[in-house]
Each structure stands twice: as C-alpha cells, then as structure tokens.
Amino acid sequence: MPIRRKRSSPTLDEARSKKVKVSSSMTRRSGDDSDGEAFSSKRCIAWFHEYTGPDEDTLGPEGMEKFCEDTGVEPENIVMLALAWKLEAKTMGFFTLAEWLKGMTELQCDCTKKVQSKLDYLKALLDDPIHFKNIYRYAFDFARDKDQRSMDIDTAKAMLAIVLGKHWSLFGAFNHFLGQSKYKAINKDQWCNILEFSRTIYPDLSNYDEDGAWPVLLDEFVEWLKEQRTMSS
Known about the structure:
Order of helices and strands: HHEHHEHHHHEHHEHH
Keywords: Nucleus
CATH superfamily of the largest domain: Cullin, PONY binding domain
Protein name: Defective in cullin neddylation protein
Strand order of the largest sheet: 1-2
Distance between the termini: 74 Å
Helix content: 55-70%
Structural class: mainly alpha
Function: Neddylation of cullins play an essential role in the regulation of SCF-type complexes activity.
Mean pLDDT: 88
Number of helices: 12
Largest sheet: 2 strands, antiparallel
Domain DCUN1: 39-226
CATH topology of the largest domain: Recoverin, domain 1
Subcellular location: Nucleus
Radius of gyration: 24 Å
C-alpha cells in the first residue's frame, strides 16, 4: 500500500478518490481483477506465481488443484484438457511458466476472470470434430509416462473416461473389457483407432468389418462384446 503524505483540508472529492484508490490497492490480486484491462505479461506471470513459489517455474499438482478451484472447473473436466492443449503442456498435472505464458498470451488471459470467460470457447473447440480429434491425440502424449512409448492401462481407462465417457455409448462395455483383458498398456495406434471406432461403428456392431484394418485390440473387443450379449440374451 503506498505511503500517503499528510495534507491539510483535503476536498471532499479528493478524500473520496483516495478512499477508492486505497481500497483498490488493498484488495487487488492479479487472479481476481483486471478482467476489463488489456492483457499484461507481467500480470500473467504474477498470476502464475500465485500457484507456485515466487521463484518456481513449474506449477505442480497442488497449484493445479487450487487453479481449478479458483476457475470453477474440476481437474477431471475435459475443458482442462482443452486448456492444457492450448498451453501445449507436455506433462499432465504440470504447467511450466513458459507454457503458461505462451498459452495464456494466445488466449489473452492474465487473471482468473479472463480464463473463466474463455471456458465457452474451450467447450466449443471440443464440439468441433477436427479440434476434438487433435485434442484427443494430444491426450495420449500428455498423459503417458514420458519414458514409455505406450500408456499404461489404468491411465488409459481414466483418460478415455474423460474424452469419450459421455459421448460413446459403448464406452462402459469397452472400459469393462479393458479391465478384464490381458492388455497392460495401449499404444498410440490403438488409441487413435479407438476414437475412429467410436465415431464410425454402430452400437449394435452391424457395420464392423472383421477383415478391416482395425487393431487386434478392437477385434477382440467386438468378439468379447458379442459373447456377452449372447450370454445375456
């Protein structure tokens, strides 16, 4: 708070002006205000450091949880994946300062209110088939362990629940299949084909071509699901 020099007999307007300025300086936080102002890199960096130590250049899981809380979006919400894609984040649960500044500059967000105002835009990206496909593919490299070429099965199931759980009628069956299968990991080709399968194959499997170029994983899923349906009929 700035030091004020003592003056004699201030006018009523001056007193009111000072009161407003003092109140503003006491309550302003970069993550809460400035939503009506032009983008500021300095304010964006200060906002980042609200979720890290002052000298840290990586926002980790604890800071991410607080960021999600402030933004009003659950960490498991697919909108957070879309945001990570816009920031070109390399590792799930972490944003580096460089990623944050590059992505937030593109989004023109330097405070919480501004990023909240972009949530509808991020949701619209997910509703666009081309953007969604890019985000879906990005999710594989984002979520896998960087020392592995494949994604472990538990991570794959969790990520598939985020990206396809609400939009693919066969997701529940596929998730069950993965849980009882021999597969311990999913590679990128399998990952990409799961999306294509979810978009093109009818729930009754009537248009599934057994001689098509689907991965063995999906051939086995179709065979398993047909057996399950036969046993329950």
